[in-house]
Amino acid sequence: MLSYHRVKGAYIITMIYFDAIVVLDRVGVLVEFLDTLRRRIMEAGLKGARDGWAYYWVLTKPMEKVRVI
Q1: Residues 11, 57 contacting (CB under 8 angstroms)
Q2: Which helix H or strand E contains 54, and what residues bound it?
Q3: Cα–Cα distance between 63 and 56 in angstroms, integer?
Q4: Which one of 17, 30, 56, 60 has the lowest number of neighbouring Cβ atoms within 10 Å?
Q5: Which residues on neighbouring strands pair with residue 48, listed in sequence order?
């Protein structure tokens, strides 16, 4: 069973990946990874939302398992 902190951490990391801006990537590995991740997030239908200081993902089908990484 997943702990609350592990799931919460996954949401935070995914949000950081989605909003990231690459400053320097000479070989393009990080840019390719982030582009792939963003594409998978969009294909899964996830929508980023904000409520005050809290950020979260809205699922198109509640309680559906989504894997983007």
Answers
A1: yes
A2: strand 54-58
A3: 14
A4: 60
A5: 57
Half-sphere exposure of 21 (CA within 13 A, CB side): 1
State pTM to two decimals: 0.65
- What residues contact residue 56 under an 8 Å CB cut-off, 6+ apart? 11, 48, 49, 50
Angle at 58 between CA 62 and CA 34, to 5 degrees: 120
Residue 58, classified by CB atoms within 10 Å of its CB into exposed (0-12), middle (13-18) or buried (19+), is exposed
- Cβ-proximal residues to 61 (8 Å cutoff; 6+ apart), any chain: 45
Over the stretch 3-16, which tens digit does the pLDDT of each residue have?
444 455 566 677 77
> Hey, how many other C-beta atoms are within 10 angstroms of the C-beta on 46?
17
How far apart (Å, rounded) are the C-alpha atoms in residues 59 and 61?
5
